[in-house]
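Minutes, project huddle
Topic: does the predicted pose make sense with calcium ion bound?
PN asked that the exact inputs be recorded in the minutes so nobody has to dig through chat later. Recorded below.
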Amino acid sequence: MPASPLIKVMTDAARKAGRSLVRDFGEVEQLQVSIKGPANFVSAADHRAEEILFQELNRVRPGYGFLMEERGVVEGSDKTHRWIVDPLDGTTNFLHGIPVFCISIGLERDGQMIAGLVYNPVSDELYTAEKGKGAFMSDRRMNDRRLRVAARKTIGDAVVATGIPHRGRPGHPKFLDELGTVMKSVAGIRRTGSAALDLAWTAAGRFDAYWERNLGAWDMAAGIVLVREAGGLVTDLEGGTDMIGTGNIIAANSTMQKELLPLIRARVT
Ligand code: 2AM
Ligand code: CA
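Predicted holo structure (tokens), as shared on screen:
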């Protein structure tokens, strides 16, 4: 299916910022040997990518507001539209030379997510979705294919992704408790370090399910549209739809979601 004008402008912005990230990623790999480490360099790479996305999106859709991981809220003259952007999701991977990171761009209209893009500039895998129009993935072989969440219905066969709270963040005991329960019921657990890619890979049916707590809106916004448009169910960990407000998310096909959610909720004390 040819991309809509909206998806086209999002893709152009992401590819431009992606070229900047890939250049900087090449440098980070060289810097790995230095003792001081490339943390400041990565932060600069993050800001460079964000600046490109801000400029490009602003140019093609003047007046839209922004919520960006680094610069926060930028009010627009158009109060109905807002971009929710993470210029580098998977920062720790980027810092360590692991090529699993992405750009995430979501578009909100009147408080509803209406479009999402997740782009890994190293693998060149581009995931896009627009409300009511389906979710798609294109890769460097230029294969364009429609995405469907995994059809697997048996939780015992499921490969489930999650995120582990980072050092210094709250919720370690709760996470270990949840993990202990879920790992006994599923085929295997995966942890990529990029929430936006976890959601894209769930939309693509690579993961049967995904859950995580304490995320930012920019980690989830685009991925929520991808999973929904791929036929999946996305809720918060109470079974409601306030993922952005609570920071908590579970995504899967609806059968799997209904089996997995009670296992996680039962652990909440
Ligand atoms: P980031 O790479 O943009 O920081 C990994 O489980 C997910 O958690 C990533 O999407 C990561 O996004 C996010 N995250 C949230 N808080 C984080 C933190 N303090 N350190 C690293 N990653 C964090
Ligand atoms: Ca992020």
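Observations noted during the meeting:
- The chain has eight helices and 13 strands.
- The longest helix spans residues 5-31.
No decisions taken; revisit at the next huddle.
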